[in-house]
Amino acid sequence: MHFFSVISSIFLIFSITELRAGIVNTKHNLSVSNTAGTIKAQAETEICVFCHIPHQSRPLGKPLWNRSMPTSNYTMYDSAYLRRLGYPDAPTDLGSANDTPGALSRQCLSCHDGTVAVGSVFKLRREYMNGNTIAMTGTDGSGTIPATSAGFIGTDLSVHHPVGVEYNPAITKTFDIGSRSSELKVVPDAPIKLFNYGGKKYVECSSCHDPHKENKAFLRVDSGGNHAKNMRDTCMSCHDKSGGDPWPTTHQVIGMPYTDPNVVSKYGSQSPSDFFCVNCHTPHNGEGDYLLRKVEQQTCFQGAASSPNLSSCHGTGTVGGVDIESVLNRTYAHPVNITDGVHTDLDVFYGTGSTRFPAGSKGLSWDDSMHAECMDCHNPHRLGSNAHVPKGQWYPNTPTNAVSDVLRNVTGVEPNWTPRGTQPTTFSTLESADKEYQICLKCHSYWGVGDAPDGVSGHFLVNEGMYATDQAWEFNPNNRSAHPVVMPLNSRPGSSDPKALQANQLRAPWNTNPGFTAMYCSDCHGADNEVGGDPRGPHGSNMKYMLKGEKKYWPAKPDGTLYTAQDIFNGGDSDLFCANCHDLTQVTAHWFKANSESIGFPPLNITCVTCHVAIPHGSTKSRLMGYESFPEPYNYNGNSLKLSGFAKRSVGTGIDTSHAYSYDPQCNQCHDHATNTSGIPFEDFTP
Predict the structure, then answer these.
(1) φ and ψ at 414, to 5 degrees?
(2) Of 54, 307, 455, 549, whose CA is between 20 and 30 Å from 77?
(3) 372 to each of 78, 125, 528, how far by Cα in Å?
(4) Nearest residue to 380 via CA among 310, 290, 458, 446
(5) Do the Cβ atoms of 204 and 102 come closer than 8 Å?
(6) Sign of CA dihedral 404, 406, 408, 409
(7) 8 A C-beta contact, residue 377 and residue 444
(8) Which of 302-306, 418-422, 644-648, 665-669 has the lowest mean pLDDT?
(9) Closest-CA residue to 572 (of 526, 604, 527)
(10) What is the pLDDT of residues 372-388, one digit of tens each?
């Protein structure tokens, strides 16, 4: 025999012996000697024969394959995210010829898809089987792997990690501002293996699994110390979610252990930091999109545990976590718990009026895709733990509208601002929002609610008893007034001087440097008791509009009657929402002084919404004033506003009740109903 042939034969013998030894104590030892699993031969002693034969192997399958390829048509993994990202089209099936994408995975599925008998081999020793099978125990009636087996995959591969798919780290999705890659490492960490077909790299079952290794799940990566770490390190061998930010993120280092005994038994660990990705994702049989363990928010509520009370995540009864599930079930909440199956990633590109891709997919338009999911406001791979408001406080120490750690790297939109009183209908998409409002406006603007030419959409909110409004219309910097959500008041191009209130008219922290600071939407909207332990942010509340603070009612009192100047003047504003931030004693003192000399006493029974819009985000008039021509819900119940003209004072406090016009007799006790004696033009006044 030729020397090299001898050496090759010896090498082959040693290799086969080594591989055989590697599977003896695993479930892949399907011989009668199997002690690791319940599926095994009744009498057959050979181990390798269930997959390999040294001579006269099958032409399809390698190396030295001894089984028939399954003829199944597989439902392949696909997602709108991959398509929207620009990833190559998902394969329509697994390859059935050697050296084609998916062919190696089809070989694995010759046992695991449940269509071919486990004991169905091509040849046993010198004999062709000719339709006979090795007698097995632990299989179902047809000799196939039972559907209840942990190793059962089936023919629906849409709930499993994609195989037969190209590995392409070069793909980048471009936003109007910023870009996002496929977040794959250029070269996977060893010992992960890719397969080359036609000059491209592909993922197969054996990219992550080595069927001959003696470890749980046959993972190629087995240096982590327990199964949870091995799975974690397997995922992170290919997927790079750091995005240039500090890694790991809060979700990777959360501390309280799982108390679910099944988690400990399966993964050999109860520490969430061992799990990393596996807290939320599973490579096989994911119930939610993107291989999430459970459907959307249920994954956030319980992680790898079988119920929230056995985890430290975000569900009711969680131990050591932040219970967000409970507040999402309150009367007024974002509809996270009622919109399963609507959300898809990169919806930010597909608001009202846009052409969606792929065809038939969801977007942001409330007409057919209204949703709110945890992932719309939080990036679970990149977030940090710090909110902009410290624990135990209602408001920040330093007002700002810049995103905090918990909102880090979330997609958003920036409206292309239009003239005063018009609706922005085009937007710049942002890979990472800089300001909180850019996240909120993905839904609370034309991009979500659609046409709202006067600020009011056609979507009725049952709990609130009103039509949803376009908040980009309201906060438009070209309007004459708005709370400083988009920008500081002194920066607003549509306002006239004085743009900001004076410091003595505001409470902390808003009285520091007024006119030069901005604020969050969630400075006004949040949970009932954020100072007493409720999770911060506008998840849900028992208070209408999710108003937060010590005072939570607007524009009506708890008994349903409207707040009036009398309530403020006599200190009866203890529940008035506006008084959380505005020192209204300064307003009533000025008002009384300005009017008592002329009429003896001001008409204190006038309601707040006689003059001010009932949705106090912004107005086309100064100082959040509204005219009687305004529609509901700005005009409370359609009949609260009485002014027809208003002229803002150019000096002093910026509050001048003498420069207004109204046809209402009650208002005319204070306001000139015929002429504007101030000399300042009324704002868009037509008698």
Answers:
(1) -115, 120
(2) 307
(3) 22, 60, 20
(4) 290
(5) yes
(6) negative
(7) no
(8) 665-669
(9) 604
(10) 999 999 999 888 888 99
The answer to whether the CB of 413 falls within 8 A of the CB of 430 is yes
Q: How many domains does the chain have?
A: 2
Is the overall model pTM greater than 0.85, yes or no?
A: yes
Residues whose CB falls within 8 Å of the CB of residue 236, separated by 6 or more in sequence, listed in order: 189, 276, 277
Bond before 558 cis per omega within 30 degrees? no
Q: Does the residue 262 lie in any domain? A: no
Residue 171 structure tokens: 């793909």
**573 plus 677 within the same structural domain:** yes
| Position 193 in a domain | no
To which residue do tokens 């994954």 refer? 299
The whole-chain average pLDDT of the chain stands at 89
CA distance 234 to 281: 12
d(CA 425, CA 69): 55
Q: Which domain holds residue 433?
A: 348-550
Alpha-carbon span 66 to 54, nearest angstrom: 9
Residues 420-443 pLDDT 10s: 999 999 999 999 999 999 999 999
Residue 634: both structure tokens together = 């700005």
Beta strand extents in 165-280 (DSSP E only): 165-166, 172-174, 179-181, 195-197, 200-203
Q: Which two three-digit tokens encode residue 128?
A: 């062709």
For residue 293, is it within any domain?
no
Nearest C-alpha neighbor of 27 from the set 6, 10, 11, 51: 51
DSSP three-state, residue 48? helix
Instruction: Count the neighbouring beta carbons within 10 Å of the beta carbon of residue 635.
Output: 20
CA distance 642 to 640: 6
